[in-house]
Design brief:
The complex is a heterodimer. Chain A is 33% helix and 24% strand. By secondary structure, chain A is of the alpha/beta class. In chain A, strands 6-7-8-3-9-10 form a six-stranded mixed sheet, sandwiched between helices. Chain A has a six-stranded mixed sheet with strand order 15-18-19-13-20-21, with helices on both faces. Chain A is elongated, with a radius of gyration of 25 Å. Chain A starts with 5 loop residues before the first strand and ends with a helix. Chain B is built from 13 helices and no strands. The radius of gyration of chain B is 20 Å and the shape is globular. In chain B, helix 2 packs across helix 12, helix 8 packs across helix 10 and helix 11 packs parallel to helix 13. Chain B starts with a helix and ends with a helix. Classes of the chains: A alpha/beta, B mainly alpha. Chains A and B meet through helix 10, helix 11 and strand 17 of A and helix 8 and helix 9 of B.
């Protein structure tokens, strides 16, 4: 039997202390559309980047046609016939389509002829063959997103790849465009290429792929022919639940009613925050919120599940008063604790030391002020307490935050915000990047301040275990719309299905 | 360790500057040894030379503080030169218009008007930045040209001397002149003012809430916003205006302490040299006093080098530029070494 077109085996790729890939494998055959599925952070994009030569793996092997290769740069990947279409387009907005297609292509045509002429000939031919039509002389910035994506695909095809990699190409497309794209991908595969399609939308992959690979936590957990799997088996593989109609046995404490370690809330719950019909603009290109209703009471943990980029950041910012709603009612306390999504830019000043980073949140607190002066002595004491309590690996409070590892930076932010006396705490993926012990500690702390501090906690997380473990009430946030998960659906399968279901996305 | 690092960067930059400055003299056919001798004699060789260095350092310290304060908040105010001219024009105008007032009233009025005019000059780019998002680097540079030309206009038009011959104003009244710190020298009270403002900025940045907000906005604008602190715009605006006021005060101090009149080309480019002064001091107000003195000594010594060794004054400008380049380079090297 002929060897597969490409075989990636045991690929490991670390970013700092975090392993994005931890033994992932992928086998690609000529003539197939291969779907790669996984939750956010499962390592899909990283795996594609490794195959596209953008990232060098820390371990594992890559074979093309049965021969070991080293894909040390995108250029090397191209010479092996691997074309990568990025999730975020790599096009120059001011240049025309043709100029973008010719970018970096001094290798085409005879030297005396402008590459623009040669590329125009080749691209015209190719677009006739594939049905990919784009206007060549229009500037990229004047094109729709769907057109831009066609340019990206055309750009990759001009290099005549045998392997075409597409990273979440459907995320930006309208349904009709998705149908067109899939028809194109099928034709490309039938010509003998191998097309790899990354998505986290299950139904899309099922509608187009010949074979499917599922990643979870940087590992390949499943590879199967399309006909052998259905959406249920794939969901379970993605979220890691055992098969069977019941939820996993260890998720029992996740049910809100009367489990041992969670006392009943007092019957007179104090409302600490209320959103009614809230709309908000996407912050920095993010997804907007549409008609969000949410009431948070003191003493409860409201857990919001969802894949990143569905309005999580915007919801966190609106709930904490950092982003204005464009419509609706927002009732929140004056001071809200916030563990932001991006700790290194939004949570910390990396050129500041521990004490100064504590002051970022504490400087409004009267206890740490004396007139116009800040009480640095008190702030330093507090910083030392947080450092000890949350085991931030730093010699002293004069250590610069930028010299800490990512996990320790997170401990610092989490510690700072958990230690404040607030009525409402918004935690956006507070345990991402933390190790097992620290994760357990942070979860326990969130539970504790809700219970003992009578604080309302809003936990936004892509981690279903976390959502089920901590949430007294559970919601899913999909494309900026928040919907409650009824208690009988408080299981991995129930919440996972809601997160991924096409129905709620189109709602 | 962390406290000493900036010193290391500054020392490394100065050492590299010295080597390249000596090399440039040698290539130009001058003796670096003779030049160094003249430099030292002219800057610290005698009590008179030391006084001269201190007097020359006053506008450099003040504009250096203005630049350092703005840069700390991430406000790239390149407009200290124009703000200085605006301050000088306003100060001279007040001094000439109310010359009959007693010194206790007139001197503060002269200095305050200089500061207000500098703040007003900075207000144009400041408001454009905060309200419209226009980059302040371009606008402050452009405002420099306007400020320089404003001074050129007033000394030929409304404020020209009574004789109407030279493009300069009449001398200001004695009551508008800053007192001398040491009689029969040129060292005026402006030096003390520069030290006081340096100390005030240092204390503000270090101890106060506003100072912390300024540093936070400069060091991590997103973290400052997200951590729920501050209206970033308000901090930027306040810092920008304060920076302009200090630069304007430098103009007022110069006309009321040294020249006693306004004329064209009052400043040999202090507002630009201030950037080197501030960067070499790592934007630290207390250190700005030191680097300002250093640059003042360099300018005093350069005059002696021209007199004694025939080295053109333009060479000093090149040396100042080298300081900026080497500070930036040393800083990058340190960062890479850290990472």
């Amino acid at each position: 039997m002929t060897p597969p077109l490409a075989r990636l085996d045991g690929i490991v790729r670390r970013f700092g202390h975090i392993s994005a890939l931890d033994g992932a494998s992928l086998e690609l055959r000529a003539g197939e559309v291969h779907g790669v599925l996984g939750e956010n952070g499962a390592g899909k994009t990283t795996l594609l980047s490794v195959l596209g030569g953008l990232l060098r793996p820390d371990g594992g092997s890559i074979e093309l046609d049965g021969a070991l290769v080293e894909l040390s740069s995108p250029r090397v990947a191209w010479t092996h016939g691997i074309g990568l279409v990025h999730q975020h387009f790599a096009l120059v907005p001011r240049l025309s389509v043709l100029e973008n297609l010719a970018l970096g292509r001094r290798d085409v045509g005879p030297g005396w002829k402008s590459p623009l002429v040669t590329i125009r000939e080749q691209a015209t031919l190719l677009s006739e063959q594939t049905g990919l039509s784009v206007p060549f002389d229009v500037a990229i910035e004047d094109l729709s997103v769907g057109d831009r994506q066609r340019v990206e695909i055309l750009k990759a095809l001009l290099r005549e790849p045998r392997l075409l990699l597409l990273d979440e190409p459907t995320a930006v497309l309208a349904p009709t465009e998705v149908a067109q794209l899939f028809a194109l991908l099928r034709r490309l595969a039938e010509d003998g290429r191998s097309v790899v399609l990354v998505a986290h939308k299950l139904d899309e992959i099922l509608s187009v792929a010949d074979r499917v690979t599922v990643l979870r936590g940087g590992r390949t957990v499943l590879t199967a022919v399309r006909s052998e799997v259905d959406s249920r088996t794939l969901t379970e593989a993605m979220v890691g639940g055992p098969r069977g109609p019941e939820g996993p046995p260890d998720s029992t404490p996740g049910f809100p009613a009367g489990s041992g370690d969670r006392p009943e809330r007092s019957t007179v719950a104090r409302s600490v925050a209320r959103l009614a019909g809230v709309n908000a603009r996407g912050a920095g290109g993010g997804v907007a919120l549409h008609g969000v209703d949410l009431e948070v009471s003191g003493g409860e943990v409201v857990a919001i599940a969802g894949v990143e980029g569905n309005g999580q950041r915007e919801l966190a910012l609106v709930l904490s008063g950092r982003l204005e709603a464009t419509a609706g009612v927002v009732e929140i306390p004056e001071d809200v604790g916030l563990i932001p999504q991006d700790r290194s830019t939004e949570g910390l000043a990396l050129d500041f030391d521990l004490a100064e980073n504590m002051a970022l949140a504490l400087h409004r607190d009267p206890a740490f002020r004396r007139g116009v002066l800040l009480r640095w002595d008190a702030i330093r004491v507090r910083a030392a307490e947080v450092r000890d309590e949350f085991e931030v690996q730093a010699r002293d409070v004069a250590t610069l935050a930028g010299t800490l590892s990512g996990g320790n930076q997170q401990r610092l932010v989490v510690g700072r915000e958990l230690g404040r006396r607030v009525d409402l705490l918004v935690a956006d993926n507070p345990t991402r990047g933390l190790d097992v012990t620290a994760t357990a500690f942070v979860r326990e702390e969130l539970r504790r301040i809700a219970r003992d501090g009578d604080c309302g906690v809003v936990l936004i997380s892509a981690d279903l275990d976390e959502v089920l473990d901590l949430g007294d009430r559970i919601f899913v946030l999909v494309r900026g719309r928040l919907s409650p998960v009824p208690p009988e659906q408080h299981s991995r399968d129930g919440v996972g299905a809601l997160m991924l279901s096409a129905k709620s996305e189109e709602a | 360790m962390r406290r000493l690092e900036p010193l290391g960067v500054a020392a490394g930059a100065l050492l590299a500057t010295a080597v390249f400055a000596a090399g440039s003299l040698w290539l130009g056919g001058y003796s670096p040894i003779d030049a160094a001798g003249a430099l030292l004699r002219g800057s610290v060789g005698s009590p008179v030379a030391v006084m001269s260095s201190m007097v020359r350092s006053v506008p450099l310290i003040l504009t250096g503080l203005a630049v350092a304060l703005a840069f700390r908040a991430g406000v790239w105010n390149i407009g200290a030169e124009g703000q200085l001219y605006a301050g000088a024009v306003a100060s001279v105008w007040v001094a000439l218009s109310w010359s009959a007032l007693p010194a206790v009233v007139l001197i503060p009025a002269v200095l305050v008007s200089g500061g207000l005019a500098g703040a007003a000059w900075a207000a144009v780019p400041a408001v454009m930045k905060v309200r419209l998002g226009v980059g302040e680097v371009i606008t402050t540079i452009l405002m420099n040209f306007v400020g320089i030309l404003l001074a050129a206009y007033v000394v030929r038009g409304p404020l020209q001397e009574a004789r109407g011959i030279f493009p300069q104003t009449d001398p200001i009244a004695d009551a508008a002149r800053l007192p001398l710190l040491i009689p029969d020298t040129r060292l005026h009270a402006g030096f003390l003012i520069a030290l006081l403002i340096g100390a005030a900025l240092w204390a503000t940045l270090r101890w106060t809430r506003l100072g912390f907000q300024i540093r936070a906005v400069g060091a991590a604008p997103e973290a400052a916003r997200i951590s729920g602190m501050i209206s970033r715009d308000r901090v930027v605006l306040a810092t920008f205006l304060a920076s302009g006021a200090i630069a304007g005060l430098a103009g007022g101090v110069e006309v009321s302490g040294v020249t006693y009149a306004l004329y064209e080309n009052l400043s040999p480019g202090w507002g630009y040299t201030a950037i080197a002064v501030a960067l070499l001091a790592r934007l630290h107000p207390a250190a700005v006093v030191g680097t300002g003195l250093l640059f003042g000594a360099l300018e005093a010594g350069a005059a002696a080098m021209q007199r004694e060794a025939g080295i053109p004054l333009a060479w000093v400008g090149a040396v100042e530029a080298m300081v900026i380049l080497f500070v930036l380079a040393a800083d990058q090297i340190r960062r890479r070494y850290d990472a």
